[in-house]
UniProtKB/TrEMBL annotation:
Residues 200-225 are annotated as: Disordered. This is Protein PBN1. InterPro entries: Pbn1, PIG-X/PBN1. Keywords: Endoplasmic reticulum, Glycoprotein, GPI-anchor biosynthesis, Membrane, Transmembrane, Transmembrane helix. The lineage of its organism: Eukaryota, Fungi, Dikarya, Ascomycota, Pezizomycotina. It is a single-pass membrane protein; Single-pass type III membrane protein.
Length: 400
């Protein structure tokens, strides 16, 4: 088993080595404003027998938030296998607000009765921003990665066992003069607990990033409150960088209560009226007539290419008028009758991003902080760079 604990601070917030204490398998320091990521890597023979048996017959498995609710449904939808070999074969989405059932299951299966540190660590997942579980059949390892959002927190970590290699990084973002727009720069301190008495010499590195936040000033998307035909509105202004083959996209993950009509989104005139270019992908098949309560499929996903202003002059004109807007029409299925006559339908924010496909023969070195298998990335060539737009609710908020 290997363990990697990383604190990442903002530019200018780095700590001096003298502020950090390393002693007998622990590291401690002052409170810091940082993101924390914990990653545990297990060999196949270190896993419980039930999980080991499941993974033995699996080529790749990537999980985020698992629901414990059992009901009659077709859990997975097929993904296009004929285009990219690096994409997954099936996809499933289930809304889950809390990790409490998973935390309790993990404590029952993984923690010994007197192991308070194991229990406390799993309980901390209740405050995590994300949890990723991935199995790599080539290396026969299971990786569990938890991320806590940027917040004030105590700098403290300890190795769970002397046989476990625990690496700790205390890093901050860095912007050297040689940094390219598509690169991420980091610098800071590294140590291996129970093997070193002090943090190593400061380190600095920069790597190409395939996922990058777009400009903070670029806005977001808003679901408009409506009846049977809700509509998503996406606002964008300009591309994050000049030049290159950049195209904006919106990737929607839709529960079975809502769907997009692929025939409507195949009409060029209709698309142009909504500032859309083309429907690049849609889950198949999608029943356009069935009510929600007879559906067995979890839902669907859609990738749409947006149509931004075509010139700098048009961009400036749109900026003077307000943000440029693209509309994505959706359709609400008939729902089961509810007391009071109203039902709330939760739909996740779409992933809105600019994509720039890498040229032929261009290879990106692996970045240990980037996530893959997000749904939309499997619909592009490997090495595609994504510039993400931050979602911000407007008007109706998060719920329809």
């Amino acid at each position: 088993m290997r363990e990697r604990i990383t604190y990442v601070q903002k530019l200018g917030d780095s700590l001096e080595p003298s502020a950090i204490t390393v002693n007998a398998g622990t590291i401690s320091g002052p409170e810091v404003h940082a993101v924390r990521e914990d990653r545990l890597t297990f060999a196949l023979d270190e896993l419980p027998s039930e999980l080991r048996t499941l993974l033995t017959g699996t080529q790749d498995l990537h999980l985020r938030w698992v629901s414990t609710t059992a009901y009659e449904t077709e859990s997975f939808t097929s993904l296009p296998k004929e285009r990219f070999s690096h994409s997954a074969a099936f996809q499933y989405y289930q809304k889950l607000d809390s990790l409490s059932p998973f935390i309790q299951y993990a404590k029952d299966q993984l923690c010994q009765q007197a192991d308070a540190s194991c229990t406390a660590r799993l309980d901390s997942l209740s405050k995590a921003g994300s949890l990723d579980i991935s199995y790599d059949t080539v290396q026969h390892v299971l990786r569990v990665t938890a991320l806590w959002p940027y917040q004030r927190q105590q700098l403290r970590a300890a190795t769970s066992h002397r046989q476990v290699r625990t690496e700790v990084g205390i890093l901050s973002t860095d912007k050297p003069q040689t940094l390219e727009p598509h690169e991420i720069g980091i610098s800071g301190l590294l140590t291996v607990l129970a093997r070193t008495r002090s943090p190593r010499q400061p380190c600095s590195a920069s790597r190409p990033a395939t996922a990058t936040p777009s400009r903070p000033s670029q806005p977001s998307f808003s679901p408009q409150r409506a009846s049977i035909q809700p509509c998503n509105s996406v606002w964008l202004l300009t591309a994050p960088i000049a030049g290159g083959q950049l195209h904006p996209y919106a990737y929607l993950t839709l529960p079975r209560t809502v769907f997009a009509d692929k025939y409507q989104l195949s009409d060029p005139l209709f698309l142009a009226s909504k500032n859309l270019t083309a429907l690049r992908y849609s889950t198949q098949p999608v029943d356009l007539e069935a009510p929600e309560y007879v559906m067995t499929q979890w839902g669907s996903s859609v990738l749409l290419q947006l149509a931004p202003p075509r010139s700098e002059r048009e961009t400036k004109a749109k900026a003077d008028e307000g943000e440029w807007t693209a509309e994505i029409p959706l359709h609400l299925r008939y729902l089961s009758p509810e007391k009071g006559g109203y039902s709330a339908v939760d739909v996740p924010y779409p992933a809105v991003f600019w994509a720039c496909e890498a040229g032929e023969g261009v290879a990106f070195p692996p970045n240990p902080f980037e996530k893959g298998n997000l749904g939309y990335d499997g619909l592009f060539d490997e090495g595609t760079v994504f510039w993400h737009v931050e979602p911000r609710p407007v008007g109706a908020g998060r719920r329809w």
